[in-house]
Amino acid sequence: MAELVMKYQQYAEYKDSGVEWLGEIPSHWEVVPIKHLAILNPKKSALSQDLMSDECSFVPMEKLKFNSLVLDEKKVIKDVYDGYTYFENEDILVAKVTPCFENNNTTIAQDLINGVGFGSSEIFVLRVNDKVNNRYLFYRLLETMFISVATAAMTGAGGLRRVPAETINTYPIAVPDINEQTQIANFLDFETAQIDTLIEKQQTLIQLLKEKRQAVISHAVTKGLNSDAPMKDSGVEWLGEVPEHWNVLAISKLTQKITNGYVGPTRDILVKQGVPYVQATHIKRGNINFDDAYFVTDSWSKKHSKSILKKGDVLVVQTGAGTGDIGLVTEKEEDYNCHALIILQPKTDLILGSYLSLILQSSYGYSALYSIRTGGMHPHLNCGEVRYVKVPTPTIDEQQKIVEYIEGMKSKFDELTRSAQQAIQLMQERRTALISAAVTGKIDVRGWQAPE
User: In Å, how far are 67, 86, 131 from 58, measured between CA atoms?
Assistant: First the structure.
């Protein structure tokens, strides 16, 4: 905030707002509660009865996002008149429930069918009067102190906590005249659009890095590191040619054990401390991210010894949304037990666990596992099918070199991704600070003009 105040001009005179969290405001601004500027949840009787048989835009809660409204559903007005929230073009929509409210799921309704929308009852609607610019109020509702105060006032339990309507109605904000509000809104429209463009570029970069990372892995484990090596047809769909001196073997030929983790209800076996118990939620991008949430007793683990993990084991998520995700057991996870995961224990004289893990994470590995999934809406992999998946297999020495090469490249991609993510975070923080500074009068943008 201090950096922004130094960059932009301040007002010549300030006065005490009389509100603790507002502090000083420009001397010509006035403090008023939101209810004097906008109607909260306009009555449906304001809607013309002539429209009852017409269509309207329909907005479920998940379609209201930050500065965005997804309008891909429509309904007949009379069918949604009762039980849903009503709004019109130019109304401000605010998610009232956690965590949507804290995520700034707030926007201005536009391009509604017949100018009318109905949606989730978890949406507040603010319809401004002639004392306030709706875009100014929109930005004011994104200001950090308002979010903090409203969040602290939430009632309810767990995921059903909501901002009380009274909190919004009575919240005091400082406002200049309508012309200055419009100027502030124009300034924020331009500046936040500039920031959003930069954020979008960084997000595009992250996606490109993700795709490049995957391409590097896939090429190395299926084509090797020597671009001049003679090639041969692998005889396997999706795999194509492989180096001539490589073998292509079924997983069953390369492993000394293919088995399942324990399959059964966990409510009676989990304890607060004991042997860590790995589940599908812990498997992501080749790693096991155990979160200290699940444990079994040592005696139970020994009784189910077939699912005790060894360093170098490769875990495959067997069922659910993450079916086919891969995790490599490191020294840290050795002797853990696991639940409903396929365990592949490599023959170390034929294949490294780290190499097998990378193959199954490659585009080829993903396609091979995807092709043998069953279950449609509830995907599932069977050990009996996974054992027949063919794997391109160079010598152990070459496998080690490929693993080292990929790990080095992954580190570079991860560092570039972290830098892009940090840049996004800084820009988001700047965006938030800029909005707060402008709508609370910390900076004076009356003389601002959009660049040509």
Answer: 17, 10, 29
Residue 260: other Cβ atoms inside 10 A: 16
Burial of residue 155 (CB within 10 Å: 0-12, 13-18, 19+) is: exposed
Under 8 Å between Cβ of 359 and 221: yes
CA dihedral angle for residue 189, residue 191, residue 194, residue 199, rounded to 10 degrees: -100
CA-nearest of 66, 47, 168 to 112 is: 47
Angle between helices 396-439 and 144-152 (to 10 degrees): 90
Phi and psi at 212, nearest 5°, equal -65, -40
- Convert 47-66 to b/e letters by CB count within 10 Å (16 or more is b): beeeeeeeebbbbeeebbee
Mapped onto helix, strand or coil, the DSSP state of residue 276 is strand
The backbone torsions φ and ψ at residue 186, rounded to the nearest 5 degrees and listed phi first, read -60, -45
Amino acid in position 236: V
CA angle 432, 436, 438 (to 5 degrees): 120
Give pTM, 2 decimals.
Answer: 0.81
Rounded to whole angstroms, the Cα distance separating 198 from 136 reads: 23
Distance CA 96, CA 68 (A): 16
**Axis-axis angle for helices 353-361, 396-439 (nearest 10):** 50
Q: Concatenate the DSSP letters of all residues of 317-377 into one string.
A: E-BSTTTT-EEE--GGGTT-EEBSEEEEEE-TTT--HHHHHHHHHSHHHHHHHHHT-B-TT
Q: How far apart are CA 317 and CA 313, in angstroms?
A: 13
**pLDDT tens per residue, range 152-186:** 999 987 678 999 999 999 999 999 999 999 999 99
Side-chain half-sphere CA neighbours of 287 within 13 A: 6
Torsion of CA 274, 278, 282, 284, to 10 degrees: 140
Q: Are 399 and 350 in contact (CB under 8 A)?
A: no
Q: Which residues contact 59 (CB under 8 A, 6 or more apart)?
A: 69, 70, 71, 73, 93, 117, 118, 119, 120, 123
- Long-range contact pairs involving 328-331 (C-beta distance under 8 Å, separation at least 24): 328/286, 328/287, 328/288, 328/353, 328/354, 328/357, 329/288, 329/353, 330/288
Residues in the chain, overall count: 452
pLDDT of residue 27: 97
- Contact assessment for residue 376 and residue 294, using Cβ atoms and an 8 Å cutoff: no
Q: At what angle do helices 353-361 and 363-371 cross, to 10 degrees?
A: 70
Distant-in-sequence, close-in-space partners of 279: CB < 8 Å, separation ≥ 6: 294, 338, 339, 340, 341
DSSP assigned state of 44? G
List pLDDT tens digits, range 252-268: 999 999 999 999 888 88
